[in-house]
Amino acid sequence: MKDDSDPSYAKELAEMEAWDRMLWLARAYLEASETLCHAMLDGGFSSQYSSSRVVLHIARQGIELFLKGAIAAHDEAPEHHGHNLNKLYREYRRLYPELRYHFEVPRQFLVSLNEELFPEDTEAFHGVLDQRHRYATDRKGASFAIPETFDPVTMKETLSELRRVSEVIEWVELRPYLKAVLGKGGM
Prior knowledge:
mainly alpha
């Protein structure tokens, strides 16, 4: 981190292409969620239900931005997929079908490539999935608090692996591909 008030980091971020900013922020969100799990285990962050919501929201935001960044880098518009991880993940897999781009989205975010089997259930679920970890209720006042297990040890391991894999995909596969095939530099 810089010690002075030089705004060069903000300027550097502002000058990046949108896809590059999304990937940059995705890395930060995934690192933050993993760090909060670590702090939870060390006693520096409270180990309670509300804290688990923060960790999950930040992790989900990192996944969403990673997918949107990869889609946007391919000159596609990720905005029309909104916050639906299923739609974003399907689009990502369409654009990057090779196995080297594959990663598992943690089960807490229920990404399924078979959602068309139950469209009415899926649409209702994904309509609020981006909200259930950051708000107490939906727009009608129904609680998002549901019984679920959150193990910070398992989640930290899951997030650590997700961060490792997403960074390998970004730096070893995605960025070289973008540079070679699409003529995009961005580092």
